What we know:
- With 350 residues, the protein is α+β, with helices and mostly antiparallel strands.
- The protein has two domains: 5-120 and 161-224, no CATH class; 251-341.
- It is 32% helix and 18% strand.
- The chain has a five-stranded antiparallel sheet. Strands 2-1-3-9 form a four-stranded antiparallel sheet, covered by helices on one side.
- Helix 7 packs across helix 8, helix 8 (275-287) packs across helix 10 (309-324) and helix 9 packs across helix 10.
Amino acid sequence: MPLDSVTTQLFCRLPRSVGNPNRHDVFSVKDIEDFIKQNEGQTDSLFISLYPSNSLIDKMFFDADYGDFIFEDFVQLFDYAIKNNLNPIPLITGLKGSRKEPRFHLYTRLTPHIYGLEAKILLYKSQMKILTDVFGDFDKVMVDRREKYKLPGKTGRYIAFDPTATGDIKRIVRIPQTRRLSNPQTYCTYLPLDFPSMTKRDLLEHCMSKHTYTYPPLEKRLLLTDNFFDFDLPQREVINLDSRKECLRVPKATNLKFLLRPCVFNAVNHIHPSYKLRSIATVDLYDIGFNEEQITQLFSELGWEDFNEETTRLKVNYYCSGYRNGVKPTGCQKLRELGVPLNPCPPCCG
């Protein structure tokens, strides 16, 4: 089945990766179509990378996945995107959880642009700017090793959006117009722009089949560096509810969180990570453009118990030399074999 025009618009910039969830690269729209044909109906995990391999940023992604106010929060964000000409494309991703509740994705389209090393930070600040505009100033709190966004003054009330999607340029997301192996069987499919008026019954019926729509084109250039996205990122306290784990949260190392894959960051952000994990983090950072001196500096801010600048610099140089000789970033399958993450990895899968 050929990709529809909207899915092609969102994911036609290549190469990028697909996964179920093991990733491999695709270099043409036909490759994506073949992947769907081979896997749809066989697995519920049909994912595609949010951005192409050159980290070109052409959209922002928001995943409404938490709590009892998912639809209400999703509508709030959508209305904001409409009012601010952010070119939104809304999707219902099917039914999820024991209560079989609908979940949603929202894409806001940008002018395609390669930002370089600052891409993750710019994307994170832009998304945080939007979420703060919509929901006000909210707190971050560690829950089950994942950060959620908590509304002040509302105990237990988290906004619906998955915080691990914020600023994640390595993320993979569910491919639109693909079938889910849920009971009942549903689709990840597009919503009309008037979906806020739909009832819950309408939404449930809507995700039982695929739908295509024509969305308005981009009216003007919109880049992450535009004045609209100017945002002085506040220092937010991170609360670790699991006191049994020794884990340092050093404010200076905050940026590292947005540069590494979530599971890799969590693994090295401890007092004494293994040398294997340090090598994995080194190769990841070198792969996105940091040099040996910059990597050593980032590691110096993590608070490792045995940190030695000279030894770390030698090891970093050694691992970066391995990259130049063909050693590439460790794949998700190998990370799972190493116990990273400790649990299946939902943050990497939309």
